[in-house]
Every structure is written in C-alpha cells, then in structure tokens.
Amino acid sequence: AVVRRGHAAYRCHHRDRGLAAAGDHVDVGRVEVGVAVALGAAIPLTGFPPLNNAAEVLDVSSHPSRLVVLPTVLLALVAIACALMLMRRPLVPFPGALVAGGVLLFIGGGVSVIGSGDPTDSAVQLVIAISVPCLLFLALMAASLPAAPLCGAFVVMSCLLMLRGDLVFFETWGIPTAGDLFTAKFSNAPYDFHYYGLGNPDHTAGFLLLPYTLSLFWGLAPELSPRGRMMTLSGAAICFLSLLLLYSRSALAVALWFLGH
Hints:
The protein has helices at residues 2-17, 22-45, 54-58, 71-85, 96-114, 119-142, 147-173, 178-185, 201-219, 226-246, 249-260. The protein is mainly α and 261 residues long. The protein is globular.
C-alpha cells in the first residue's frame, strides 16, 4: 500500500515538475529507471551468498568501524545519495500500525543491547538488522524512483538467487517425498540448499514471502499486460516452489492464505 501511494505521488510529482525539454525528461527518466533497477536487484544480492558473509569475513563485531564497508550499509548509503541527488518527493504518510511497529522494533532492539552480555556485538546487530534496513526504506521512499522497475528487479533477482538453491536441492534429493523435505530441512552440509538461501530455512521462507506476495498481487492487477502477468505470476510460482522445498509450515500457511485471497 505504501509503495502504491508513493508511486501515485511520484506520478504527480513529475506531472507538476514542468520540464521544459522533452529530451531532458527522457534522459532523467532513463537515469531513474537504471538506478531503480540497480537498487532493486542489490537488495536481495546483499542478503544471499557470498555478500551476506561479509560481516563475518570483516569481523565487524570486533571492529565496529568496518560497518561502513558492509554491502548492506553501502547499499543504504547509495540509496540516501540517490534521495539527495535525484528529484526528491515528499514522504507519503505511513500507516499508523507501520510507524508503531517500527518504534517498538527499535525499543526492543535497545532493550536487547542494554541486557546483552556483549553490548558491542548486539549494537552491531541492531545497526545491521534494523537501522540500516529502515534507512534504506526511507531513502527509497524519498527518492524519486519509479516503483515498477525497483520492485521488478527485486523480484527477478530474488527468484534467480532462489533458483540456484532449488537446483542444488534437486541435484541432492531428486523429486522429494514428504520425508525428504523434512530431512532436508534439518540437514546441514557445506554448500547445500540452505547455504544458497539465508542459512536457516525459516528465515529464508520468511524472506520469500516478500517477493511471493508482491508477485502474486502484482500479477493479478487488471491493468497488467498478458506478458507482464505471465512474468509476475512465474515469479510467484518460483517463490512458492522454494517455500515448498524449505518446508516451513508457518510460511506455507501464510502463502496459501494469500493465494486464497
């Protein structure tokens, strides 16, 4: 809902800008689309191997100053730069529940740091897991970027990354039975199916609900072309297949609930 309202504000913003030269408008539009595609694709890339191992490789818990070179932090900084350099738009009002959830999330993170046996490590996790994603979200909402290329690149890259893991699963287990799915979920081996996800099947399934839901609702939009509908619903199908292989029953229940509605 927030993306939809932001996209409407984006259209109104460009309608009111009154660019003098049509050529300038085309050039600016191409830049915005290119940046949107790059940022949309980079979001899942920073969360999957090998970039998601950067925190351990750099040992940021022992060297917090290295936070600034983490891929996730760099992505947020690039998004902030885009919000400052490209044509900015006013932030659309956020739903009250979203704001309340964000505030409670930060309060919980602060309490966790205070009560932690290793406050430095907990503070680093607070920055990586909560602060940086929130900054990225606000920057993307403030930047004058088209929603369709941004969301499309996010879905496509998420599906490509999960297809890599799905192929590894089928190479290892073949066509799985219910018993194979259960065994695979709790197995752990170097460069296995879980390695090419987020390392934990429930975490990976929780993430996949994002591109799955986006693809599903986008694919059912009445104004979408037949080709666009086929592409977006294919993305939803890939995400659902990965959810089946991950065998996270709570995530599957949510996915089926969305499918029914």
